Amino acid sequence: MRLTRHRTAFAILALLACALLLPGCASTGKGEALQRAQYAWSAAIRWGDFEGAWNLVDPEYREQHPLSEVEFERYNQIQVSHYRELGAQQAADDTVLREIDIGVINRHTMAERGMRYREAWRWDEEARTWWITGGLPDFWRGE
């Protein structure tokens, strides 16, 4: 009889532990998905795959701000020399913000310059993925 009570108590504790850990597993999955999306984004930008990076942009943004073939071609004029995360934070609306330092080389003049870029990521529950909300980096801002 006593052994049965111990097994019952152990089973209840195990179920309670599982119930407490399940929300953590869900957020870990979401966090891992964010890391994968940010890695894919930074790799695409770093290696000049701007059409691939464009596929990671929020579909609503892509629909509202379509890029022409000429605009994509403009990205062939530059090369990214470095891509460094300077910091990240979660906004009140669950958007994740990242400050990025990017080195940009003009392929025609071979002049390099640095720029700062802020990424904003949003979780799409329906698609179960993270999207970048602001489009491709504007390497020509102010020029």
Can you offer a commentary on this structure?
This protein has one domain: Nuclear Transport Factor 2, Chain: A. It has 4 helices and 4 strands. It has helices at 2-46, 50-54, 59-64, 69-74, and strands at 78-90, 96-106, 112-124, 129-132. A 4-stranded antiparallel β-sheet has the order 1-2-3-4. A hairpin with a 5-residue loop joins strand 1 and strand 2 (96-106). The radius of gyration is 22 Å and the shape is globular. It starts with a helix and ends in an 11-residue tail after the last strand. Residues 8-26 have low confidence and may be disordered.
Helix segment tally: 4
List low-confidence stretches. Answer: 8-26
Percentage of residues in helical conformation: 40-55%
Q: Termini, distance in Å?
A: 82 Å
Query: What's the rounded overall pLDDT mean?
Result: 85
Structural class by SSE content:
alpha+beta
Order of helices and strands: HHHHEEEE
The major sheet is characterized as: 4 strands, antiparallel
The largest beta-sheet arranges its strands as 1-2-3-4
Tell me the overall shape: globular
How would you summarize the topology of this molecule?
Layout: H1 2-46, H2 50-54, H3 59-64, H4 69-74, E1 78-90, E2 96-106, E3 112-124, E4 129-132
Antiparallel strand pairs: 1-2, 2-3, 3-4
Signal peptide: 1-26
Keywords: Signal
Short structural description:
The chain has 143 residues and is an alpha+beta fold.
Could you name the key traits of this structure?
single chain, 143 residues, alpha+beta, Nuclear Transport Factor 2, Chain: A, four-stranded antiparallel beta sheet, 4 strands, signal
